[in-house]
Design goal:
Elements: E1 6-7, H1 13-25, E2 32-36, E3 43-48, H2 49-57, E4 76-78, H3 83-96, E5 107-111, E6 117-122, H4 123-127, E7 136-140, H5 144-155, E8 159-163, H6 167-174, H7 185-192, E9 197-200, E10 209-212, E11 218-220, E12 227-229, H8 232-242, E13 250-253, H9 261-274, E14 283-286, H10 296-302, E15 305-309, H11 312-322, E16 329-331, H12 335-365, H13 370-378, H14 401-407, H15 416-441, E17 450-454, H16 471-479, E18 485-489, H17 495-500, H18 508-512, E19 517-520, H19 525-528, H20 532-538, E20 544-547, E21 564-566, E22 571-573
Parallel strand pairs: 1-2, 4-5, 7-8, 7-10, 8-9, 10-13, 13-14, 15-16, 17-18, 17-19, 19-20, 20-21
Antiparallel strand pairs: 2-3, 5-6, 11-12, 14-15, 21-22
Helix pairs in contact: 5-7, 8-9, 12-14, 12-15, 14-15, 15-16
Length: 577
Amino acid sequence: MYKQYLVDETYTIRQIFDIFQSLSEKKMPTGIAVVHDTKSKKVIGTITEGDLRRSLISGYKLNDKINNIYQKNPILFNAKTSYLELIEKIPAELISRKRKSKKFLSKIVLIDEKGRLEKVLSYHDLWEQKVASHRHIVVLGLGYVGITLALVMADKGFYITGVDNDSLKISDLKSGNSYVKEKGIEFLLKKCIDSNFNPQKSIPADGDVFIISVGTPIKENTNSDNFSPDLSYLEQISIDVGKKISVGNLVILRSTVPIGVTRNFVMPILEKYSGLKCGVDFYLSFAPERTAEGKAIQELTELPQIIGGINDESVEATAAIFRDITNTIVRVKSIEAAEMAKLINNSFRDLIFSYSNYTAKIASKYNLDIYEVISSANQGYPRDMVPYPSPGVGGPCLTKDPFIFSESISNNSKTLFEYGREINDSMHEFVYRKVTDETKRVGLEIKNLKIFVCGMAFKGKPETGDIRNSSAVSVYNLFKGDSSELCCHDPVASKNEMISLGLNPVEFEKGIQNCDIVMFLNNHIFYEKIDLNIIINKMNNHPIIFDGWNIFKFDNIENYNSITYMNLSKTISNIIN
């Protein structure tokens, strides 16, 4: 973000004015540029709007270079200096340099240990203690959401304490090992673990900002077939935080919750156990996580951050933190609006996927290739692109957020979101029946067949090793007891995690050898690179290939003897019973 301030001696006065204008449009501290050496990257000076105006008055032109204009002995501070230390050091530095102002420095330039630019701050923000990176931030719950946020924040310069009650997680993190498979996370962990990221089991006593990111899993309701969120983890962490917060602290809820939970459930607990008044003594906001697994590190710095608060002060205090992470802050007028925005995103995605899956079932009745049909419908059509179907919609978010949204409606009738979930979950049985019906049609005894299920993570793109609520796991379990030899493969997922769920993971070469049925249930690039001809040659006679993501687009069955190729809706076979 702060690279926009960097210039060198060859820049012209006009270019510097253009930079000031650009910074102003982005609502960043403006009126200063930082001159650095292009080879060493060290800061060698600064140039301000005042410097430029004085130079023009003295006869310089807009196209003249700044090499004789900029300040070659600028006031610089180490980026690790706390905001209190900065406020104390600035007057002494101004006095020592005999500046006119003995207390006020409009812009503060922070550098790293090697003298390179770290960030630029306005004095106003510093004095108002809105420079969040100088505050102690406590991230509570180091699951997928918590650990990715904690490490991205640490990488941006925040001092982070990550809290989780799982001793194994804490031990792994302290050793520099991530239990989460995510692009870039190992690098960030190794970079920050010995500096400004400290994982531990207990909540520290000196935290300034508390970010709650514990899970809100769903549970099946007694005497009904629907689900509701389990808020017990959220309740306990709210009690624990309530016992720790003090005047001036900020609490940010990041866990996915039904509309109204932050205000009506979390806030009273915090007030009860702290003895403080929310909005007066401490601040409370909701800032939802909306990243996609496999792209979380990237998206935390790119996606807009929605923020709703108990009051304007809560929103602005939260914005002061996240503006150092992402360029776009979306302020909404209430906590409830922020809660609903998160639920809208995930529930809409799940619902639109259910539409595609429903059309796949219809196409299957007519043995039509639904991928061809949808592609034709989308081609050149400027409205409402229809996504392609899948063997089910899994993962930790889309499988629960529609139920959390439904909880916000508070009535006994089935909601639109629950109907969508029902369709997506039904795809597991649909896939199972499609394959087993084909084995019966061609006269094969399924109990004698080797079945190889590929792609156990809940999605293949972006890459993830997460097998929580995976459709492939659900389909695999339906085949248990049917086949004498059932095995699986995933190029990313942990072998131990798969075994813990009762799966039988093997290397791809072992699984495909002498296999009767192979099923591709996610679209990881590993499978896209496979040569289908080689696969077929390694399988037994009369092989059945189920391509749940239309990876291979098989249309040359005449080149093979006795084979069945299936996607979600179309079956091509030359096996004669």
